[in-house]
Design a protein that fits this description.
By secondary structure, this protein is mainly alpha-helical. It has five helices and four strands. α2 links the parallel β1 and β2.
Length: 134
């Protein structure tokens, strides 16, 4: 059970006790499938919230507005963790030169930052080095 679901349930119970508030339906956005399922497990009846507005001319479909914050946050986190000022220090000079050449040939700095974004978005990452004759 997610913390978010527990907090919503706690808030609903508090509202009923504190203000003697009653509710007949709880609306959850269609994109929040896991939240709807968790609320259903708690025994709370959930209805899908629609994106339709009633106007004088009848119902109109509303486009969901977004700020694209997940993308912005993952980009910023990846930049904070790894950027062009990051230094990788290796004691062996010959090995350091060799690895630095490999990093430049493969555009490691750019690609690793992109992969960090994916990792933050998806919640994990596996790095599998591919060795060939050097």
């Amino acid at each position: 059970m997610s913390i978010y679901t527990k907090e919503i349930n706690k808030f609903m119970k508090w509202s009923v006790e504190k203000f003697e508030m009653r509710y007949t339906e709880v609306f959850v956005h269609p994109a929040c499938k896991s939240l709807r399922e968790e609320m259903h497990l708690l025994g709370i009846q959930i209805s899908r919230a629609d994106n339709n507005d009633q106007t004088i001319n009848g119902p109109k479909q509303r486009r969901m507005a977004t700020l694209n914050m997940p993308k912005v946050l993952t980009q910023e986190m990846a930049t904070l963790i790894f950027n062009e000022r990051c230094e990788i220090n290796i004691d062996d000079d010959e090995l350091a030169d060799n690895i630095e050449g490999i990093f430049k040939d493969n555009k490691f700095n750019k690609h690793f930052q992109d992969y960090l974004e994916y990792q933050f978005t998806l919640g994990g990452m596996v790095v599998n080095p591919d060795f060939q004759d050097l």
